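cache lookup: miss for this entity combination. No prior model stored, computing from scratch. Input as submitted by user K.M.:
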Amino acid sequence: MGNKEPIIITDKDEMRQWSRSIRAQSNTIGLVPTMGYLHEGHLSLIQESHKHTNFTVVSIYVNPGQFSPNEDLSTYPSDFLGDIQKLKSIPGGVDVVFHPQNLYDYGKNNGVKNDENQEEVKVVSCVENSGMGHETWVRVEKLEKGLCGESRPVFFRGVATIVAKLFNIVEPDVAVFGKKDYQQWRIIQRMVRDLDFGIKVIGAELIRDEDGLARSSRNVRLSPEERKKALSINKSLSNAKSAAGKGHIDCKVLRDSVIHAIHEAGGEVDYAEIIDQESLESMNEIKSPAVFCVAAWFGNVRLIDNMEINV
Amino acid sequence: MGNKEPIIITDKDEMRQWSRSIRAQSNTIGLVPTMGYLHEGHLSLIQESHKHTNFTVVSIYVNPGQFSPNEDLSTYPSDFLGDIQKLKSIPGGVDVVFHPQNLYDYGKNNGVKNDENQEEVKVVSCVENSGMGHETWVRVEKLEKGLCGESRPVFFRGVATIVAKLFNIVEPDVAVFGKKDYQQWRIIQRMVRDLDFGIKVIGAELIRDEDGLARSSRNVRLSPEERKKALSINKSLSNAKSAAGKGHIDCKVLRDSVIHAIHEAGGEVDYAEIIDQESLESMNEIKSPAVFCVAAWFGNVRLIDNMEINV
């Protein structure tokens, strides 16, 4: 099984051309957007894509547009060759790895056609505040607030915008996002609805290790002891879920129990919110499909996790 | 010549399906977005589309998303049957008129798929501030400011968003916008670049009546005397352009001459700005491709006009 060699495409026009030629032959394309440094969570998204389409594109691109100036974009981990090896190992593999250098580089004259103006214009980055730099942003105005948007105010603006760009470059039929990043998944789903993209967004279930820890590339940075403590997130969420199933639907009580358990284990809670699955608005009692979202620090590792509660 | 009967499509899925089937047969599609109440300016955009593609779609949709609560959306003129007659009269005609009822109505469950949540959700409008209403907006953050964006702060947000929606529904190869709405044209062009839409944006030249007045549906509301006075816009812009051609490139002097001429004729200037053709930033001296943009009131009619100056 596996060992399919993906085509590596770095140019956006070439990427679109490939997609159009594939779709012209009545095939369907699934897109799995990633920032690379792949782990089994990503691989499960690719396997989800295989269920819906007969071609799969994985994009590997660390998006500068979702990092604040104070966040360290330059140290974001990457291992492109390792990623390719992992992609080859997946049953069915992937067809294309789209690996652009800079999606905010609009090239000579910044890509704006103007017959009268043939002079070269300096290429500027997306954070440039004047001239011909990138200045178009997609905002999902309510969903982007709260939870992770609270501490990272431009994060989801950057995510929605890069995903819109990738959708327009790859032109997929289906795009797969992990429910591990629940807020991100709902934001993309809403953007697709509101902007009428002809794309089906799939939310792939969160993957856990055997001990219950949600898979994340950050887990390797946990010491064995921290990892043990971090299991308190999953355990307390499970307890809250079964309590809700037994009729204990008071959100304050449920949140307090999770906060208490994580704190007892030695973690520091960033947020623990019970919210509506679609509007992401917080609720007092669980009377409709809810999701319990948690972010917590163990040592200097920030973990997120969530559990859907359908009463 | 003419009398081609367009297909009228009101459903967005049907619209996308038509486009995909047409493009699958190696055809190209041009889109001309309008709010209806068509005049010869619009018809010239359609003729421009014919030059680039072999199929043309005209959308007729009054976009609530670009009106402020204090602007009177409900009295925006419409004449759908008259529009169809005019479209039939154009040589080559149009293939499809896309005439949706409400592009912000996401239907049952608001279009968000959620297996666990089958209950009906109330449809809300784009101005709704809670629940499952439309909340995704495309902002072209610098170009949307200034000129017409000054007095209409949500206008270009609404324009960019509805055009993104129409692009995703119609999936055209080419889209035609009039240079009469210069700022709008540049905003759409920038959005297409920044979000990587696989669409070529064409700016169609501004059309003037024989006396030089820029064509607009608002011209019919001018009295014969007001119309005569309004010619001061075109005349003073022409004078400024030829002065610039002779080396008079001081923008303050050029602006003052236009403001003075319009004022003398009895008009009230909203703005008169000489700006860079792409960045739309104002300049002190015309040393690169510029455009002189004017908005002025004659009686209770607000007219806009512009002239490109390529020194």
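stored under new cache key. The first strand of chain A starts at residue 7 and ends at 9.
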